[in-house]
Specification:
It comes from Devosia lucknowensis. With about 450 residues, the chain is an all-alpha fold. It is built from 20 helices and two strands.
Length: about 450
């Protein structure tokens, strides 16, 4: 019989797969992060200042981000932590099955307690035709505003969603575990319960990195990435529609001029898109820049430019004997007139600047570069894939919260000291990259 082969994939698809593989490679994380920072926080604010609105805080944001960008690149390329990674005597070996069982058992207990003690579940309220304001309050009540012993639940949630579940889920796929798809479904389902932003990305992002780096067959990689993209797009659209309530896209009059909220300038926090797709784009492009610039303005106007010296972190404030300053709540109150439940999170440069000035921006950014280097040099492919989750958190919040509340300090220490064994089968089969010189 004649030999048959699978039809070759088209050149554009092959090129796209190659680009994705290069961009998402852990060793190139600094490059992708640098490109994102330059486009969103250097070039875009500068463009807004020059051609749209001469807001001096936009120009300051561009300058701060430029300094931070240079420090990230320097931090990534200096081999400060390599000596620890290269000394095998530091490794503590732990069986992978023990890790998975411990993580998922603890999570299921946590999720059960959270649901049983919740007054209501936001996603169910959304299905019951709640308004946008009602859903905002529901999301806050679900975890953020818990009191007494339940006040610990939000912290457990951030560690599970931020580090433990993404790591375990990705490694289950690397191990080709029979439970990998069940784990992914449970993870995504939990992130949808609170309708909190797009937390499902914490499940999909490391899987995207894993697929792009460790699937050798281009066709298989393309099909897997396409499936992830379709699932992510669908979940994102559904979450956006549900979280917007029944009234968000109804245009309201602002005053005698009959201007609607949607008529506010695009780079204005009062702007209101008139569809879910436009809302997703606006929140992805405009809101991060608006919030970062507003953070600098609030720091200059309300706090008179006095550095907060770590007081924005509850842990640092407690250790240093300072009164906690909820800076994100202050920015939200300035934007919307109330800070009862809302928080205006911005890129980590702002936290660094309001606490320690330009020195803080450089120091925090250098630490970020070192963290990216640690992810790249890990010999655990699931740990390598977590670099994109780390970047998600520092782009949407401060470094203090990412390291302490979300648990990335523990994860980076684990990369330095712990080896999870045995290696995933797919890692050995596909000759995944061991620690390499960068």
């Amino acid at each position: 019989m004649p030999h048959t082969t699978q039809p070759a994939i088209s050149a554009p698809i092959k090129f796209g797969v190659s680009v994705m593989k290069t961009l998402l490679a852990p060793r190139n994380s600094w490059l992708l992060v640098s490109l994102a920072i330059f486009c969103l926080y250097v070039a875009l604010p500068a463009f807004i200042y020059l051609f749209i609105d001469q807001n001096q805080y936009m120009l300051t944001l561009a300058a701060i981000s430029g300094a931070g960008l240079a420090a990230i690149i320097a931090g990534y390329h200096l081999s400060i932590t390599d000596r620890v990674l290269d000394r095998p005597g530091y490794w503590l070996c732990i069986n992978a099955r023990v890790v998975h069982v411990a993580i998922w058992t603890a999570f299921l207990i946590f999720a059960t307690v959270t649901l049983l003690t919740a007054d209501s579940v936001p996603v169910l309220a959304a299905l019951g035709h709640a308004t946008a304001d009602q859903l905002s309050q529901e999301r806050a009540n679900f975890l953020k505003l818990r009191t007494g012993w339940q006040a610990a639940l939000p912290y457990f949630s951030t560690i599970f969603v931020g580090v433990l579940l993404p790591y375990s889920t990705t490694r289950l796929f690397a191990e080709r575990s029979a439970f990998r798809f069940l784990a992914l479904v449970v993870f995504i389902a939990y992130t949808l319960l609170s309708l909190e932003k797009i937390l499902f990305i914490l499940a999909m992002a490391p899987l995207t990195v894993f697929v792009s780096q460790y699937y050798k067959d281009a066709r298989r990689m393309f099909m897997a990435l396409a499936a992830i993209a379709v699932l992510s797009g669908g979940v994102l659209y559904l979450n956006t529609v549900l979280a917007s309530g029944t009234d968000y896209f109804v245009q309201e009059k602002l005053g005698p001029g009959h201007e609607t909220l949607g008529d506010a300038p695009y780079f204005d926090i009062r702007h209101r898109p008139d569809s879910a797709v436009k809302l997703i784009l606006w929140r992805s492009i405009a809101v991060p820049v608006i919030t970062a610039a507003d953070g600098i303005r609030v720091f200059e106007e309300r706090f008179e430019g006095h550095y907060l010296l770590g007081a924005t972190s509850s842990l640092v404030a407690r250790v240093t004997g300072q009164q906690r300053v909820n800076f994100d709540a202050a920015v939200f109150a300035d934007q919307f007139g109330s800070a009862d439940v809302g928080r205006a999170n911005s890129v980590f440069f702002i936290e660094a600047f309001v606490n320690f000035g330009w020195i803080g921006v450089v120091a925090f950014s250098f630490a970020v570069g070192q963290a990216l280097r640690l992810f790249a040099r890990s010999d655990d492919l699931a740990s390598q894939s977590m670099w994109v989750v780390f970047c998600w958190f520092i782009f949407t919040g401060g470094l203090f919260g990412t390291m302490f509340s979300n648990g990335f300090l523990l994860m980076l220490l684990a990369i330095l000291t712990i080896k999870v064994l045995p290696k995933a089968q797919s890692e050995a089969a596909m000759a995944s990259a061991p620690p390499f010189a960068v």
